Amino acid sequence: MLVNIDECMPILRCPRTGEVLSRTGDVLVSQHNGTKFEYPILDGTPVLIDFDHSVLEEDRTIQQSASSVIERKSYRGPLLFIKHLLSPRKQSTRGNVGKLVELLRDVSKPARVLIVGGGSIGQGMDPLYADPSIHLYSFDIYASPYVQFIADAHQIPLPDEYFDAIVVQAVLEHVLQPAEVVAEIWRVLKFDGLVYAETPFMQQVHEGAFDFTRYTDSGHRYLFRQFDLIKSGASGGPGLQFMWSVDYLARGVFRSRRAGSLAKLAFFWTQYLDRFIPDEYQVDGASGVYFLGRKSRETVPPQAMARYYKGAQAHH
Questions:
Q1: Contacts of 271 (CB under 8 A, 6+ apart)
Q2: pLDDT tens digits for 280-292?
Q3: Rounded to 5 degrees, what are φ and ψ at 297?
Q4: Using CA atoms, how far apart are residues 283 and 271, in angstroms rounded to an integer?
Q5: Mean pLDDT value across residues 231-244
Q6: What are the start-end ranges of the H helices in 24-131?
Q7: Residue 57 and residue 91: Cα distance in Å, rounded?
């Protein structure tokens, strides 16, 4: 379950220096070597961003109360049904989140879990939010009812080795320096802490100007090279990727998002073909990939990466 902002406030840190913050009215303040850093609290939500090192614009963020720069639609009735039809819960996500919850049963209670990019509840993440033995902390670059503070994941404003697990779902494609974000995740995790990540591989550009990066399964593994592997693989296979490709093909031909949506609806069934595709073929044509791992003091060497590859081309 999500902790409230009052529980979260004592652990917040200055994103620039890592120093403890003090509150003066609607401002959080940090002092470091004679320099004063101030961070506003907008409508009860602290904004802990070093705007000199973020894609966000300070004036716009403050003036618009840290609202999302991306339009985020809500769906109801028939539109909600269509959305679920086109984006059913992934079997891999369901199983991996179940595994994460199971692993968290072995840590002291309550387990502390950080959601990076938690402005909305991610697909398949409901068990984390529903479990009273899991205390969730969450942030994003925009305000929402599901975050306690606003931050840039390149500079996570939280103490070292504090969390039992971190979830970063559909986020790393939206950051400029994924390796810096993963290093921050490693820093704030306890020894033997867990990480679960899902990142696109062959999915097309989404969220426009705020989409930067893609990863193969092997590249994703190397990104998390300071973590011991528990499980990794495809999160959505070639069938799901084909459905998305039809969408973007129709968008381009007809210069219309509506045409893309209709084409996607016509081919929604192709995603279910993934159930019949072996894992090694899914990895090579995946829409996205996942990684479940545990913080390690060892680093995977470059020479190990060719041996890691587990796609279908390893058999030829």
A1: 88, 236, 239, 240, 242, 243
A2: 999 999 999 999 9
A3: -90, -5
A4: 15
A5: 95
A6: 58-63, 77-86, 91-104, 126-130
A7: 38
- Global model pTM greater than 0.85: yes
Rg (CA), the chain: 20
Phi, psi of 36 (to 5 degrees): -105, 130
| Residue-wise pLDDT tens digits, 14-48 | 999 999 999 999 999 998 888 999 999 999 999 99
Q: Is 174 exposed, middle or buried (0-12, 13-18, 19+ CB in 10 A)?
A: buried
Closest CA to 139 of 185, 208, 207, 101: 185
Strand partners, 13: 20
Pairing of strands 27-32, 111-116: unpaired
Q: Can you give the pLDDT at residue 209?
A: 94
pLDDT of residue 91: 87
Angle at which helix 257-266 crosses helix 77-86, to 10 degrees, equals 60
Asked if residues 143 and 42 have their Cβ atoms less than 8 Å apart, the reply is yes
pLDDT reading at 72 higher than 80: no
Rounded to a whole number of angstroms, the distance between the first and last alpha carbons of the chain is 47
